[in-house]
Amino acid sequence: MLQDSRLMPAISARRVRVLPPRPGPPADGVSLAVRRASDVGVGFLSLSISGGQAIFDRFLPGAVPANPHHESIARQIGRAATGIALVAESQALAACETLERLGQHAIGTARQVPVVRDVLVGIDSSMTRWAERGDAELERRQAVVTDFVAGALPALVDAVFERVDFTALAVRLPVAEIVAALDVNAILEVVDVNTILRHVDVDALLARIDLGPIVAEVLTEVDVGGIVRESTGSITNDAVDGARLTAMRLDGFVARIADRILLRGTDDRNAGLDR
Amino acid sequence: MTRTIRDERADQLQGGRAGFVSRVAADGIDFLVVEMIYVTVLVGVAVVRFLINRRGFSVGAPDLVVTVAAQWIIVVLYLSTGWSSTGRTIGKSVLGLRVCDLDGRTLGTARAFARAVVCATAYPSLLWIFVSRTNAALHDVILRTQVLYDWRGSVPVLPLDAP
Lengths: 275, 163
What we know:
By secondary structure, chain A is mostly helical. Chain A contains eleven helices and no strands.
């Protein structure tokens, strides 16, 4: 086995790998990415220009045209030029996509040719290694940036909070107007409070609260002894009243029996009571 | 603070004359109290004798005559003290009763003592309640007294001869 391995050159799995067929233009082609970037970029630029114009119109009242439906020739030319540029860009991107698709098709056809296929495999292998190296490097740098942001952001927020005078800010805020404008019932109809409460870890919340001083303050304010005395006295009074009431009813019962035994009409012995 | 009575009938009968069962129940409690006082006296006497003689501690068992006489004295003192002070003994306080004269005033010392003597001597005089149309016992008729329902523990009206 050792002798055989010495005679035969080592062939890595990467070299004998056969590229899978790639029919049609890839969904993540360069043209498509450029088109998306162009769409977003032009949209963003357009929004910026509109916003800028709105700002100018608002804060520079003299610049507002008398009739917005009749704009100047210069503006019309500008808008027309923009339209021409965008259409040209779209056509160019379509051409690029066609070229890319043709290129992909050509490469796919070339893979069928033995010599070209080997060359392409070599190129692809090299590109894959570089891509993997690039991915690893990007991943490392992303981790560095993530760590940097994770460390810097709290410090930045702390610095902001230290410099902002929240008291003055709160004084300037029209809290009463904001609260008056809030439709609490509408908010409560939208918000499912029970769902929120299900996500609340009450034990963890209570663990963070120092209940000792709160309980001490409550006990200071509430006369617990008085409450206990009152409730205990009430219970005792109820029990005593029950026994007294029973005796009182038996008084009447016994009196009625006595009256019957004495063969006289039953008479309420407290009938004259003015109550 | 006025005490609240939840039962409407009981509330209406406040100030009315108490019947047989309530009074007997109160007297039963008072009897237990008197017995406790008597036993306490016996134990107290035994303790004093032990402290003097320094011999074996034993609670004496007096003769029947002595027992009856001693308890009669205790009953008279106990009842007369209660009736002439607040109009209540412990038993009547538990049952919410008050002893007073026909005007609702607390008994004077002499009348309370006389009533206690009659009660302690001839307790069956209470049976006159069944005959009386006003829930009055015989000693109530003789001494012009009455026993009222008074759950709220109203402030007793002092007798005219009180100091």
